[in-house]
Specification:
This protein has about 500 residues and is α+β, with helices and mostly antiparallel strands. It has two domains: about 170 residues, Immunoglobulin-like (Sandwich); about 325 residues, Aminopeptidase. Helices cover about 25% and strands about 25% of the residues. The protein has an eight-stranded mixed sheet, sandwiched between helices. The chain has a six-stranded antiparallel sheet with strand order 1-2-5-11-7-8. Strands 3-4-6-10-9 form a five-stranded mixed sheet, with no helix packed on it. α4 packs across α11, α5 crosses α11 and α9 packs across α11. It starts with a helix and ends with a helix. The relative contact order is 0.11. The N terminus and C terminus are likely disordered.
């Protein structure tokens, strides 16, 4: 297998002077990379690379020296334009072996690697992801690769029996989502319903969660509905952590969550592009489509997950008993810091001001959310996105946003250095998004302000971590802190 894979890699190199990225169609599979001409037995230090696993991506490895290797990202399936996400393992290392890995074929030139971002790493004996030290990461134009941008990082292997895994950002796989949703189902919560809305091209589940108190669903009053989607772009894994944070909070026993379930129906599609996530794509589906450009006319056979979600939203929008108030599509951003939102542009100034209310409230609740980075646009290139299409479809009482979060870090008021995001801080942003709906609906008098005194301000501590100590700690900040932030925030 190793010899066959090496031959395949060499054939690819012969096919393309541009580095072979157009010809890369598969991931390396337990590929041993040894010095040219070496034909002896495998030795410790002859690194073995693998990306043939869920969400894996590494298309080719070139041996430069015993200490240096060029790595080629496999392009998205059926679409050679997108080469950003990588996720691979390295084994058969020698203790204290020092290496430099050069990722040489990124499709984007702008990158947070210029601002201190670094890949994440874990190993079998240390299963928690951690970022590499920024001082070991370099991003530069390389004359050896047609002056393309290259990201190089230095690493020292320290345990011979470990398998090391490197990734662009914290992976969140389709299987992880399925385990998480199954664990929610086992809790038999009366206010949570999970259903299969459809199947992807490769027959993976398109899950839909409905979170609300059942008495609200059965009542005759008009139902306020919030719809949230994530992972239309499969490589944007932070979106899944945010989405899980939203869900965790809404199904918790936190008093704010209980009040929200009494008044609002939440519908969540946590993974719009399960095939792309499973395959390790960055932007596209199995068939090479950027699904977030096909909302206007999705095909039931080429874009089945998008088609199913759009059908559901259109159907709910036509139901006179339902008021679809919010649509939020969660993404991750590869060049900006913090969390922020994109919204739509309207002629009606009053509607413009109303659309700015939710991001302003979120800015007060989440120290990592930036209202100054939030923008409202009508770019032609974004016409097929969920935010733009649904913004034109729904009436003027509905608000459609793209929620973006940095792949790397955030700046808080008064800070001089960026704070790198962790899996937990992404989920915390999700919890703060969920809590902000209480502020919004209190402001609009849907939820009367006769709730307990300690909940009148949003500076409440999360109770989502009762069975997981530390999960919700530090969510709230007092009013003085928020006023300070408002005075400093640029």
């Amino acid at each position: 297998m190793e010899r066959k894979m090496e031959n395949t890699v060499r054939d690819v190199e012969a096919d393309s002077e541009a580095g072979g990225e157009d010809a890369l169609v598969g991931n390396v599979n337990k590929l041993m990379v040894s010095p040219p001409g070496y034909s002896g037995v495998q030795r410790k230090g002859h690194l073995v690379f693998d990306a043939c696993f869920e969400s894996g991506n590494l298309g080719r490895v070139d041996y430069i020296s015993d200490f240096e290797f060029d790595l080629f990202i496999r392009p998205d399936t059926c679409n050679p334009r997108f080469r950003v996400w990588f996720n691979f393992t390295v084994e058969n290392v020698r203790e204290t072996q020092r290496v430099i890995f050069n990722v040489v074929n990124f499709s984007k030139t702008k990158s947070l690697y210029r601002d201190g971002m670094s890949p994440v790493v874990k190993s079998t004996s240390r299963p928690q992801w951690q970022r590499l030290p920024a001082k070991n990461v370099y991003y530069y134009r390389c004359p050896d690769h047609r002056r393309n941008y290259v990201m190089s990082f230095a690493f020292c292997f320290d345990r011979e029996d470990d398998v090391y895994q490197f990734a662009y950002c914290y992976p969140y796989t389709y299987t992880r989502l399925q385990h998480y949703l199954a664990s929610l189902e086992r809790r038999n919560l009366p206010y949570l319903q999970r259903e299969q809305l459809g199947l992807s091209v490769q027959q993976r589940r398109l899950d839909l969660l409905t979170i609300t108190n059942s008495g609200h669903v059965n009542s005759e009053r008009e139902k306020k509905l919030v719809f949230l989607t994530a992972r239309v772009h499969p490589g944007e894994s932070p979106a899944s952590f945010i989405c899980q944070g939203v869900i965790d909070f809404l199904v918790s026993q936190h008093p704010v969550a209980q009040i929200l379930r009494d008044h609002v129906i939440f519908k969540v599609v946590p993974m719009l592009n399960p095939d792309g996530v499973y395959l390790g794509n960055y932007r596209c589906s199995l068939m090479g489509f950027d699904l977030n450009r096909h909302w206007q006319d999705p095909s039931p056979w080429a874009h089945p997950t998008l088609h199913a979600v759009k059908q559901l939203i259109v159907q709910m929008n036509q139901d006179p008993r339902v008021s679809l108030e919010f649509y939020i599509d969660v993404h991750a951003h590869s060049t900006m810091l913090n969390g922020f939102m994109y919204g739509n542009v309207f002629e009606d100034e009053e509607r413009v001001q109303r659309q700015a209310v939710f991001p302003r409230l979120l800015c007060q609740n989440a120290p990592d959310f930036s209202f100054s980075n939030t923008s409202f646009n009508r770019d032609v290139v974004k016409a097929g996105t969920g935010r733009r299409f649904l913004g034109g479809l729904l009436d003027d009482t509905s608000y459609c946003y793209t929620l973006e979060v940095s792949f790397y870090s955030y700046m808080t008021a008064g800070s001089t250095a960026p704070v790198p995001y962790s899996e937990e801080s992404y989920m915390k942003l999700g919890r703060n998004v969920a809590r902000t709906f209480l502020d919004y609906y209190k402001l609009n008098n849907l939820i009367k302000d006769n709730i307990p005194h300690q909940l009148r301000s949003t500076d409440v501590m999360s109770q989502t971590g009762k069975n997981n100590p530390g999960r919700g700690a530090g969510i709230g900040r007092n009013t003085v802190d928020r006023e300070k932030e408002k005075s400093v925030r640029h």
